């Protein structure tokens, strides 16, 4: 990975960045991560694509790689696919954050009767960001069991990175409609739309234009891999420039089928200027998370 490391360092040097802040990286219990990797290896039904895991390493090596890239803060995105799983994942993530001070303490939830309780416990325990995955979890974000969760996160001002777009395959509750109904009730919710909302890019940009606390992360967007099957419309590039203060770097490390540096180069070739890149790769997240 020497070339990849050097490419990332040169990118940072070109922009004069002290480092990167990546809001969409995955760390989770090893047995869960191995199942995720096995799913990608089998070209699972949500992807149907050949998806080699570039950074299939042990946890310590993955952490060392991120730090060698100059990633100053990152997340441990994790998510349940069934009830009675989220609280256990949150306990693991709290321990991970305690032993990994450069990780933004991450938590998650699922629509179940005790969701409000364990989300409040996670917030009181120092959680800085939450992850919701409407595609994998296959739940309606407007489920009444989640009412106390969205309200608490909106009141506390804690961002929730949400996979709510219909890529790589649509789910029953993906697309802008379901999450827009949550925002209509909780307009101050700090929602971070994962993957730029692919493939409904324009509709999610509109949500960001409508709600000042809505942001988008760049995870896998604009890369050669994604452009082959869910390209970002060139006509929407001016809106990216206008929303430059509300777009955050995300990569999906380690579960990406290309080098880490490619995500950065994909952003650079949008040709939106150095100030835009500095904001996306560092400044916006620094402000949002107060780091």
Give a short overview.
This protein is α/β, with parallel strands linked by helices and 291 residues long. It has 13 helices and nine strands.
Describe this structure in words.
- With 291 residues, the chain is α/β, with parallel strands linked by helices.
- The protein has 13 helices and nine strands.
- The strands form two sheets. Strands 4-5-6-7-8-9 form a six-stranded parallel sheet. Strands 1-2-3 form a three-stranded parallel sheet.
- The radius of gyration is 17 Å and the shape is globular.
Element order: H for helix, E for strand: HEHHEHEEHEHHEHEHEHHEHH
- Look at the helices and sheets and give the structural class: alpha/beta
Major pleated sheet: 6 strands, parallel
**Approximately how much beta-strand content do the residues carry?**
5-15%
Strand neighbour order, sheet with most strands: 4-5-6-7-8-9
The oligomeric state is: single chain
Distance between the termini: 28 Å
Mean pLDDT rating = 96
Name the helicity range.
40-55%
Radius of gyration: 17 Å
Inertia-based shape: globular
Number of separate strands: 9
Please count the helical segments: 13
Flag low-confidence runs.
Answer: none
How are the secondary structure elements laid out?
Layout: H1 2-15, E1 20-21, H2 30-41, H3 59-69, E2 71-75, H4 86-99, E3 103-104, E4 106-108, H5 115-124, E5 129-133, H6 134-137, H7 147-156, E6 160-163, H8 176-185, E7 191-193, H9 201-210, E8 215-217, H10 224-227, H11 237-242, E9 247-248, H12 260-268, H13 274-289
Parallel strand pairs: 1-2, 2-3, 4-5, 5-6, 6-7, 7-8, 8-9
Helix pairs in contact: 1-12, 4-5, 5-7
């Amino acid at each position: 990975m020497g070339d990849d490391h050097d490419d990332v360092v040169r990118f940072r040097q070109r922009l004069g960045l002290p480092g990167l802040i990546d809001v969409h990286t995955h760390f989770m219990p090893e047995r869960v991560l191995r199942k995720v990797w096995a799913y990608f290896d089998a070209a699972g039904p949500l992807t149907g694509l050949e998806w080699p895991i570039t950074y299939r390493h042990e946890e310590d090596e993955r952490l060392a790689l991120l730090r060698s890239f100059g990633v100053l803060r990152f997340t441990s995105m994790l998510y349940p696919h069934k009830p009675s799983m989220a609280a256990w994942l949150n306990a693991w993530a709290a321990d991970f954050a305690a032993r990994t001070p450069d990780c933004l303490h991450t938590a998650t939830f699922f629509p179940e009767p005790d969701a409000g309780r364990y989300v409040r416990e996670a917030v009181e325990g120092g959680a800085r960001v939450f992850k919701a995955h409407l595609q994998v979890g296959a739940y309606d974000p407007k489920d009444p069991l989640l009412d106390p969760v969205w309200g608490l996160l909106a009141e506390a001002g804690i961002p929730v990175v949400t996979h709510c777009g219909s890529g790589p395959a649509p789910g029953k509750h993906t697309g802008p409609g379901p999450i827009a109904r949550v925002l209509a009730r909780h307009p101050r919710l700090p929602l971070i739309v994962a993957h730029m909302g692919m493939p409904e890019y324009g509709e999610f940009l509109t949500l960001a234009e409508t709600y000042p606390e809505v942001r988008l992360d760049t995870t896998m967007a604009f890369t050669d891999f994604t452009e082959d099957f869910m390209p970002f419309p060139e006509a929407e590039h001016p809106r990216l420039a206008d929303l430059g203060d509300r777009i955050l770097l995300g990569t999906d490390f380690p579960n990406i089928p290309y080098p880490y540096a490619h995500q950065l180069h994909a952003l650079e070739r949008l040709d939106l200027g150095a100030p835009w890149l500095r904001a996306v790769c560092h400044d916006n997240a620094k402000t949002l998370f107060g780091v």
